[in-house]
Amino acid sequence: MHEESLEEWARRREARRARSKGKLGTVPLTSGPHRGGHVEPAAPRVIQEWSGREWVTVGIVPDLALARAILYPPQPPEERAAEWDRPAMGRGRDRHRKPSGAEQQRDQ
C-alpha cells in the first residue's frame, strides 16, 4: 500500500483550502441550534466568507431573501443565437413533421 508523505498531504490540503477561499455562507441570528436555512425567513442573517482558515463576518442582512440575493446573484442571460445562425429546416416529410395542407391534398 502506498503511504502518502507529509509534504504531499500538506500540498493537497493547501490546494483544497485555496479553492474554497472566498466561499460565502450565512448563519441566522436566532436563539437555539442552527437549523435549516429556510427556517425563520424573517430572521436577520450574518454573511460570512471563508478565508482559508476560518469564517470571517462580512456583513449582516435583515432576512433570508436578501441573504440569498447576495449568495446567489442572478446570472447574466445567455445570448441567443440570431435567426440566421440556426440551421434551416429542410423540405420534406420526416417522421415528426406535420405535412402542410398542400402536401396533404397532393398525396390524396
Notes on the protein architecture:
By secondary structure, the chain is an alpha+beta fold. Helix content is 28%, strand content 17%. The protein has a three-stranded antiparallel β-sheet with strand order 1-2-3. The chain is elongated, with a radius of gyration of 28 Å. It starts with 5 loop residues before the first helix and ends with a helix.
What is the quaternary state of this protein? single chain
Instruction: Classify the secondary structure makeup into a structural class.
Output: alpha+beta
Beta-strand share of residues: 15-25%
E-strand count: 3
Rough shape? elongated
Distance between the termini: 76 Å
Radius of gyration: 28 Å
> Unreliable segments (pLDDT under 50, ≥5 consecutive)?
none
Characterize the largest beta sheet: strand count, sense, and whether it forms a barrel.
Answer: 3 strands, antiparallel
Q: What is the share of helical residues? A: 25-40%
Strand order in the largest sheet: 1-2-3
Summed up, the helix count is 3
Q: What's the rounded overall pLDDT mean? A: 82
- Helix and strand element order: HEEEHH
List keywords for this structure.
alpha+beta; three-stranded antiparallel beta sheet; 17% strand
